[in-house]
Each structure stands twice: as structure tokens, then as C-alpha cells.
């Protein structure tokens, strides 16, 4: 299908109900907020002006040597900042071009207004009666194959290092026989309290428990022949960013995430 022509602006879809952080607050507050809410980014705002964002990777990088950091010390420049009057098609293209799922929204004076997430785009199209035809095509046309996985018996410290090095949001988890048994994400590390502060300043270095102790089970899966809309509905209903694609023997074939859904909606390859 061709590119969808959006006739709406960012202002109609972005969320205004987002917690924010102040630059002078303790950095560990970001960890608590993410643990409690599951958010991927938190805007940093001072006197109504957007100052940056804190990401999950920023929280995972807090060190024991500098545990007295403030929010300003771990805040990042967002890769994308959207204007509330911006046309939605342009906004989504900006987000996809830098592989960002969330972007803060400001007005013309850089006053913070909220956050636009890819799930807002997906939700909008799932509510429409005339859904894009791409959503009715099989998942296998849009999934990513050759997915890198981790093993349930690996230590948490190994997972933590992989996430920080490769910047992956999460991994499928396999057992010793290569069977899919769960999923582990950045949020699982934060939710269970495993950040850099937990792996430093110990002799010998702490390895932490095994991945199987913090992974989410059972893994949420679809079949390659399922329509893409099924994967989209599962993601929104369960508040997850991706689903795994398996065959009838539960063998991992691929993964499809929110970005894949939005690319399909927008007619992107």
C-alpha cells in the first residue's frame, strides 16, 4: 500500500498525562518512577520548559561511585522533539528515522506539553473502521528474523552488559534446549532493582541471579500467518512493545514490534 496521508496533527494524539522530573531531583527518583510506571522515557522539565529526557538506559547506567547524581547529570538531549501543531505524518517519519518510539511535545516557546508514543499512532488506526490493508497481511511479511536471544541460566550481569552495549530493549529467553521460555527487558532489570549500582564496588564482581528469576513468562507469541492487526492488538492490550513469532512447535522464528506496526501503517519497507 502507499503512504497514508494524515490529516491530523500531533496535538490530537499525544499524551498529556506523563510524569516529569526536575533537573535538581536525585537521579534515583527516575529509577523509582520507571519502576512504578514502566515508562521508557521521562521528560525533564523546569519552569514549564523542556530540558531533556531520562531514558531507561540512563537509569541503568547510574553508577555506585556516583549514586548522588541529580537528574540533570543523567538527562539526555532527545533525538526528536515535536511541535504540537506538527502534522502527524511528518512527526512519525522523524521518529522512525532515528528509531525512537517516544518523543516529547512542545509548543512554539519550547514549553513542554506531553509525549507522543508509537502506541498512540497504532491505537488511532485500530479504532478506525477503514483500517490500513497492511494490518490484514500476515505477520511474517513484517517480522524481523534471526533474532538474538539470551539463555535462562545466564547471569543478570551478562544481560545488563549486553543491554548497555547493544542498546537492545529486550531479548527472548531460551532454555538449555533452545526452547522459548520467556522475555527479558530493560524494564525487568529496573523493576527488580538491577542497575549498574548493583554490579559495582564488590569483590569479586557480583553476577546477580539468573535471567530466569526476572524474565517475564509466558512469552507472548503469534504465528507467522496471523494478521499483523492481531500483533498490534496484543501489544496495546498488554502494554508491551513487541511479540515473538513462533511456529507450531514453539520454535522462535522472529519478532515484531511497535515500530514494525507503524512502518506497515505508513507504507514503509
Characterization of the model:
By secondary structure, this protein is of the alpha/beta class. Helices cover 29% and strands 19% of the residues. It contains 9 helices and 11 strands. It has helices spanning 27-37, 56-60, 71-74, 88-97, 118-127, 156-166, 186-191, 228-238, 258-266, and strands at residues 41-46, 49-55, 82-83, 102-106, 112-117, 150-151, 170-174, 180-185, 221-222, 242-246, 252-257. The strands form 4 sheets. Strands 3-4-5 form a 3-stranded mixed beta sheet. Strands 6-7-8 form a 3-stranded mixed beta sheet. Strand 1 and strand 2 (49-55) form a beta hairpin. Helix 5 crosses helix 8 and helix 5 crosses helix 9. The model is unreliable at 1-6 and 201-205 (pLDDT under 50).
